[in-house]
Amino acid sequence: MCYLLGCCSIELETPSDGSILVDFSKNLIDDEGLSLLFELPRSIQKFSILHLHCMVTPDVLQAKARKVEEVRDNVLAGKKVNFTEAEAVLHVALRNRSDAPVLLDGKDVMPDVKKALQQMKDFTEQVISKHWRGYTGKPIEDVIHFASGCNFMGPHMVAEALTPYAIGPRVHFVANVDGTHLTETLKKVDPETVLFIVASKTFTTLDTIVNATSAKEWFLSKANDPSAVSKHFVGLGANVTKMKEFGIDERNMFVMWDWVAGSFSLWSTIGLPIALSVGFENFERLLSGAHFIDNHFKTAPVEKNVPFILALLGIWYNNFYGAQTHALIPYDQYLHQFPSHVQYTEMEANGKCVTLGGKPVDYDTGPVVWGTPGTNGQHTFFQLLHQGTRFIPCDFIAPAHSHNPIRGGLQHKILLANFVAQTEALMKGKSAAEARAELDKSGISGSQLEALLPHKMFKGNRPSNSIIVRKFTPFMMGALIAIYEYKMFVQGAIWNIDPYNFLGLDLGKQLAKSIEKELQDTVPISSHDPSTNGLINHLKRNF
Ligand SMILES: O=P(O)(O)OC[C@H]1O[C@H](O)[C@H](O)[C@@H](O)[C@@H]1O
Fold this sequence. Notes:
Low-confidence stretches: 1-6, 41-61
Number of strands: 13
Number of helices: 21
Strand order of the largest sheet: 1-2-13-12-10-11
Structural class: alpha/beta
Oligomer: single chain
Largest sheet: 6 strands, mixed
Radius of gyration: 25 Å
Distance between the termini: 60 Å
Mean pLDDT: 92
Strand content: 5-15%
Bound molecules: 6-O-phosphono-alpha-D-glucopyranose
Shape: globular
């Protein structure tokens, strides 16, 4: 066995919610190696002396030389870093808990941000205190949030994670344009006591608007009164004209701005369902947690900077070891949507094959991100993590304290023991001698032992990071999400790609528009390639 220990761990003390320990010590790199990573590309030669095959060209991987810090400062200064849309990316303003201004084109955006937060606060308080009434005078019991992409994933993931803090109406999320999602959700609500949130920056995203329009039709078929819409529909977005066209009452519009980039929308008014569920104070704590990491990322030297190190280790495996995927395993059932959220944000941001300058990259960019909560994964895909042929770095995430310490906390200790054990098993593995001794001890010998032996061995040397927080409070969730946002950001900067566009989603959307028209009748078509024609014509024959 040749695992390397001891690169480092960092403990961040939060002002209110205990610490966040980020332990990097189970990685295939030591302190010297990590410091060399900080020195890329000067250290590339040293790595080749260590016989590590560098899968990128030296002029590309330049943690410092590529000036991550400069990119960061440009973002924080409100420069138009989202160049495809010529927009700034100012989510730090949304969670700015200080009095410092955040400038965009020389103007402080904070007064607008504060106004939007005040509107969210007032509305949330009215709904939770049951002063907001539906068209028959009853208070709101359920909220359905219609959204796509980040506007769905972020609030949904956080609302699930903060379930123990829920004090408001039940919140439901509908994203899929598959009518099943809406139908099944409507079965759970009463038109007299439901509030619909339509959340879309552009207010044109097909899935969202189709679902919301169907919900409006359903609602009007029950209420039989168009004036009832203003008591049951609110809009979150940057396109006021489209919100009006949809029929959102002006008083029910919660604005966001074009400078809120896709994956960061949960910090804006798009976070309204979170506030409605857990109360506005907890929403503010969520913002404070992210703000805490904003400051850490901004001020900590790279050697002590948690997102920076996570990003470099990811690059280490992605570009030096050829890892194709990265697994996230939260040991907290409330965080069951967290891997999907990070999957969405990282894969949308860093799933690019051209540089910022438009040249094809000649190195791997964002890996496949995936995961599921422990201990569930332990009974399924962990087999591949331990004994498969793939090399899969993992992040393990756990709280020291459970929201549900049943049996005097015993069950949580069982969970935590599993978390720690998995990281140890992945690292240490089990040698032939150890496996042989075990088999011997259990009375197995001879040919049976020899046959079993290879199956009982674990190669080990499988790297992982461990993140332990005191408890998953709203503040901690804010901090955790922000850590992964900055990891993604640093990697995008080092790979020299544009993390803010999602143009890779356009082609399918464009084609769907024309295919939708073709599916309206049963006349066979021949305008596509033979395979696509075949699928369309099969559907037409079977309608
Ligand atoms: O906010 P909208 O205009 O509705 O956009 C909704 C979604 O559109 C695309 O699918 C992007 O990939 C997402 O990042 C975005 O969240």
